[in-house]
Amino acid sequence: MNHKVFLDIEDMDRDEIGDFSRKGTGDFSWEETEDFSKDGRSSRGRGDGFSQRGAFHASGRRKRRRRRGIFLPVFLCIIALAALTGCLILVVKNRLLETERNEAMAHLDAANASPTYSEAQVQDMIDTAATDAARQKEEEILGEVKGMMESGEGASAMLRALYPDEIVVAANSRYYFFPILDTLKHHSYIKEQFILNEDNILEYVMDEEVVSKKGIDVSRYQEKIDWEKVAGDGVDYAFIRLGIRGATEGKLILDERYEDNMEGALENGIRTGVYFFTQALNKEEAVEEAEFVLENLKGYDISYPIVLDVEEVTTKNPRTKDMEKQDWTDVCIAFCERIKEAGYTPMIYGNLKTFLLMLDMEQLEAYEKWFAYYQTPLYFPYEFSIWQYTSTGKVAGIGTDVDLNISMKDYGSEE
360: Cβ–Cβ under 8 A, 6 or more apart, which residues? Predict the structure, then answer.
């Protein structure tokens, strides 16, 4: 092998040497570059064979250099694009920071431009605003009052609208204002669910179903009653007046139609309760009234409460004229406790004046209430079971006006 061969091999890179080495020494042959005769001479001449081999390697080197020349510009372009992108991001961030700085400076300039006030000026502005608000409120109130007067509503209705957190009671030629107490039990009725039906009968409706009971209360003033017709008019229960104590002499008197009314109601399937008009001066007289009631209940099936009727009388010089709130309260407690001992349900009847001026309701929480109020909507926050809503009701079988009641309890089912 001559020096030219060694020079050609030295010019080859490692990959080419690897190609030869992969073939192995056993596979390498000069037959790949030139033909030899049997005596070792080349059929084409030694010089021509080695010249062709050199040309082959030179061509390979040029191809590899061209490939290397393509990759380098691409790589440099990628680096340039990355640098450009980074620059764009920095420009955008710088622009945002500049915008935020300008906004902050604008706010600062506005704050510096705002006027400053002394303490006296601030107080003056507060006073002016309060005066304006009071004047506006006054105009609103006067507008409400004017509207009520034009609609024909009375002074009580106007005051109750203007003082919603108090109970306004008209009595003794004046008005009383009672704060609504959270210490007393409140009812849970929804005013809008008390609805007058087509017959002008008040009902309490829940989920489109009437859950209240229709009732009446009667005495000798209703004269003779056709109880069969009363039952046919949908009356569920009736409170029958059992008797009274005289307002001047204090005599216990049985209502002259008590027995007829009790028998007529029960015979026609109407459940009954009774009430007694009290004029007791003290606990002893209250117990006396209770005993009178119990004696006259014998033989009758009573399912509704036994009621003590507490009202101020208009009789001249009544025997109870000097009684105080605690005296009236003691009378109620004594009567109710005796009725309870006998196994009946005691109840107290009264109106706004009764429950707020005459009685201490905090001492009477244990007893059921029957509330008389002849207007709608309901105006009473405290717990009660029966509402007497009119004294001019009309019921078949009764030739006079009659008190109508709505009960939210079905006492007849409590057996």
Answer: 325, 326, 329
